[in-house]
Each structure stands twice: as C-alpha cells, then as structure tokens.
Amino acid sequence: MTDTTALPESAAPADPATARLLAEAAGRIDAPDVVLAVSRNGARTVHTGGGAAPGPVPRERLAHELGSASKPYAGLLLARLVAQGRVRYEDRAADLLAPGFPVHPTVRRITLRHLLTHTSGLPGLPADFYPQAVPRWSTDPYGGYPADRVVRAFLRARPRHRPGTRWHYSNFAVSVLGHTLAAATGTPWEVLLHQQVLAPLRLDATRVRPGPEGTEAVGHRRDGTPVPALDTGGFTAAGAVRATPLDMLTFLEAHTAGAGLGGPESTGPGLTGPGLTGPGLTDPTLAAALAEVRRPVLRRGLRHTHTHTLTWFHHPSPYGPVLFHAGATLGQQAFLGFRPDTGLAVAATATRRVHRADTFVAAAYGLLTETP
Question: Is the per-residue pLDDT at 262 higher than 70?
C-alpha cells in the first residue's frame, strides 16, 4: 500500500510531478516500509509504501534508525561548539579526553577535525571490537562495547598513518569525537546534542534512544523477520540518532534555508522551512555552524575527485552541488541529502537490512541528482 501527500507543514498541495517521481523511486525499493520525502524550499511531498501493511501510526511519523546518517548531527554539534568558542577544530582530542595521560605520539596529534573528517588514521572500528562482536554480528554487535572501552581503545591506539594524510571512514573516530566533546564540555553526549542541535532546530521527534512502544519503526532482516532496536554501545555519536522522516526533513531544511537562495531570509538559518521560524534560530553560532558544515574542506581518491565537507559527502550534479550521507543498521536504512543552491532536500528510510543488490541509496540519491 502506498500514499503520497503534502504534509500539513506545507502550505502547497502535493506537486504531481514530484509525487510521481517519489512513487517511481519507491517502486524500486524492496522493503516492508519505505518513506521518501522531498522538500522544495519548504514545500513538502512525502510518499510512503512498502510490502507490509501500514500500522496505526503513519510511517513518516515513526522514528527510524539512521545509523551512519547520524554523523551530520555530530558534525553540526561540533561546528556550533566551535562557533561558540568552547572548543577548536585543532584541539587535540587526547588532551581534552584524558589530560596528561601518556599516549602514542601519533594519537597525541589527532585533532577534533581529524576525528570528524575521517583523517585521524584510526581504523573503522577498534581491533578488539571484533572478538566480542562476531558471535552476535546479526543481533547485537555494538551493545557489548561500552563508552569507557571506546575511550581506552583510543588512548592505547597505534594509528598506521599520520593524522591528516589519509582518508579512511571510521565509526571509531566519530565515536571518540562524541566522548571528547562530552569531556570538554562536562555534558553527556545525549544532553549536549539536544541542547545544541535538536532543541534549537525543534527536532522534537529525534532522539538517541528508542522511544515508547509504537513510536519506532521496526527493522527487518533480508528474509523479512524483525530485528530488535539497535544498541550502539559506546559508538553513540557515530550511529545512534533515530528520527522520523519529517524531522529528517526539518534538519535538512535548516541546511538549505539561506544557502544561496537569496532574499532577506538568507541571513539566518531555518527561516524558510516549515516550523523553523523563531528567535532561537537566529542565533549567529547556529547560522555559522550550518554554513560551516556545507563548506568543502578536503578531497581524496584518484585525482582527488571525491570532495567532502566537515560531515557531508559532496558531489556535483547538473543542478549544483549535492551534499548527502547514508546509513544502515541491522534492519534499517536511511538517507539524508540536499542541494544548497536550489533548496531541494531528500530524506528517505527503509526497514530492510542492506544487501549487495540494494537499490535504496541509488533511488534516494537519484531524487537529488536527477530532479530539476
């Protein structure tokens, strides 16, 4: 069963052309539940569908596990703390996390910027993560590796590469960033994220822990059997965010509002998206953070063709640059992307574990890169 609607937050009716594109894209995704949501300068169109019958709560109002698509939230948090002068990108993580603790000289050089941009030299996950994770790889690989163990693994690490010299995607590094920011501010990560990102952007349906029964999307294995909610253990900053597709759109609209759109609203974040007005969103540190995370900061790969901002993958398209991040958990997938020059944002979720021939990311990405 499928449904395409204009959400109450949008004053405009569902755009027929956009609705058709969403329906076509959803038809290429095999999952019990699919949500594809598009915002064009604040006017929203949402398509819901999938192989399972819809439940009592609309799919777009269920919280979904974002997995690695949580990282843009961590990036915006760091950028705002920097704008407030509470930390600096070049602060050394070990000095903030464990002042005076003896660490390897290479670890001593790792900065907050290195951790966020995957240039720290750390592996994707700590070496001692795998022995405890493999026996429960398909059920609960992270829950047995708590925060203190992540911190200890960082402090005793021996990176293979000098920080800043190579790009290597690392859940370990972004998790360490979360613990470092908590230590530097004396505030638990969950509280810090809420204070600095979720509350100012009015992301009331975004959290880092499962909500009440009936409010969470249920993930599924490839064979269709349900999987329990993800426990990220000590890797909270790298993958614990859960959000409704509507809140995901609100998060993206804050990034597109004022980003090259012209007009008086371009001086502050969130002033063109639905539900994003208010004095809290004119805070200059939030505006600065939203601008900072959109700015390309590094290149990698053959002939340096891959461009990244602090926290987003950054690709060209016929309609201007696209910024995006995807994520997957044991039974769910998520995609966040936007075009800052045109005000287009795409949020997508699916409740089936990723597999080799999966079309989810390609379908969501196509909505960003192939849509005028």
Answer: no
How does residue 371 score in pLDDT terms, banded at 50, 70 and 90?
Answer: confident
Cα–Cα distance list, 45 to 20, 214, 249, 354 (Å): 10, 24, 10, 25
Distance CA 285, CA 313 (A): 23
Distance between terminal CA atoms of the chain?
28
Instruction: Select from 162, 145, 148 the least CA-distant residue to 104.
Output: 162
CA distances from 128 to 43, 50, 124, 134, 167 (A): 47, 38, 12, 11, 22
Residues ≥6 apart with Cβ < 8 Å to 187: 195
Mean pLDDT of 91-98: 98
| Cβ-contact 200, 192 below 8 angstroms | no
Q: For 34-54, b where at least 16 C-beta lie within 10 A, e where not — what string?
A: bbbbbbbebbbbbbbbbebee
Helix or strand run (H / E) with residue 306: strand 306-308
Which strand ranges, in their side-by-side order, compose the sheet holding 64-65? Answer: 64-65, 242-243, 206-207
Q: Where does residue 263 rank: exposed (0-12), middle (13-18), buried (19+ CB within 10 A)?
A: exposed
DSSP β-ladder status, 313-315 and 322-328? antiparallel
Nearest to 87 by CA among 183, 189, 206: 183
Whole-angstrom distance, CA of residue 232 vs CA of residue 219? 15
Helix 284-292 / helix 71-83 crossing angle, nearest 10 deg:
130
CA–CA dist 41, 368 (Å, integer): 14
Q: Which residues contact 254 (CB under 8 A, 6 or more apart)?
A: 201, 269, 270, 273, 276, 281, 290
pTM of the model: 0.92
CA distance 311 to 71: 7
Q: Quote the CA–CA distance of 230 and 112 in Å, as a whole number.
A: 26
Query: Amino acid identity, residue 261?
Result: L
- C-alpha–C-alpha distance, residues 202 and 280, integer Å: 10
- For residue 24, what are its two tokens? 């076509």
Q: In this structure, what DSSP letter does residue 195 have?
A: I
